[in-house]
Write a structure and sequence with these properties.
Elements lengths: L1 H23 L4 H31 L1 H25 L7 H24 L6 H24 L4 H25 L5 H31 L3 H18 L1
Length: 233
């Protein structure tokens, strides 16, 4: 259990660190767009080389596809709720936070289950998580701050997301004996589905509006780095 607590905290910490970094300085829109584009590319690699591939290996296509559909629908509904309740001036900040939560919970559930079954955690995998989560939280926190949300509230939001995601690792560790590979594959698919909708609807358009022609290059670089790290792990 101690190992699950440690790795859960390590995997979730970049979410809070990114919010703090957004508060320490004013990020120029172009730089913020490049960071978001880089993070989008890293998340694409995570979907392709970790969530999708691992789900197929665990239980085949059916649980994975069901999970993808459930994750996509859940994010879509949650995002509509956030949009109705939040000010439009917050930009993509709210949707990015929702995406991080809906991705982080199932992803770290799978991490906890893997730890309970004796699988190791590679340094490359941890770096890949940082590469994808850090730009996501920086971009969201910066947008929320620019939209007028108070610093304490932004920090509290991302601290809450990080804590919930870390607790998911512990929950996965505790549930490992009660769930099978179908559940793990479905959880990976859920994270992938939520991320795909978030990327298309929020993260990539926000990056494009800020970084313009630099977005594509930043996205490819993020994809290449995260894909390399995933393959190395």
């Amino acid at each position: 259990m101690g190992e699950a607590i440690l790795w859960g905290a390590v995997a979730a910490a970049p979410l809070l660190v990114g919010a703090v970094l957004a508060m320490l300085r004013k990020w120029p829109p172009r730089l913020l767009g490049i960071v978001l584009g880089f993070g989008a590319g890293a998340l694409m690699a995570s979907i392709a080389f970790e969530l999708w591939e691992e789900g197929l290996d665990l239980a085949g296509p059916i649980p994975l596809v069901v999970g993808v559909a459930a994750g996509a629908l859940t994010y879509y509904v949650a995002d509509r709720i956030v949009e109705r309740r939040a000010s439009a001036s917050h930009g993509a900040g709210g949707p990015l936070a929702v995406g991080a939560l809906l991705d982080g919970i199932p992803e770290q559930l799978v991490l906890g289950i893997g730890l309970a079954s004796g699988e190791g955690v590679s340094v490359a995998l941890v770096i890949a998580i940082v590469v994808s989560n850090l730009p996501e939280s920086i971009g969201s926190a910066a947008d929320l701050l620019d939209g007028g949300m108070k610093r304490a509230r932004v920090l509290g939001l991302w601290a809450g997301v990080a804590v919930v995601c870390a607790l998911a690792t512990i929950a996965g560790f505790a549930l490992a004996d009660a769930v099978g590979p179908e559940f793990q594959a479905g959880a990976s698919g859920f994270a992938a589905g939520a991320l795909l909708v978030m990327l298309v609807d929020s993260m990539v358009p926000d990056a494009q509006s800020k970084a313009k022609e630099s977005t594509g290059l930043a996205t490819v670089l993020g994809f290449a780095l995260a894909a390399g790290l995933s393959l190395a792990s």
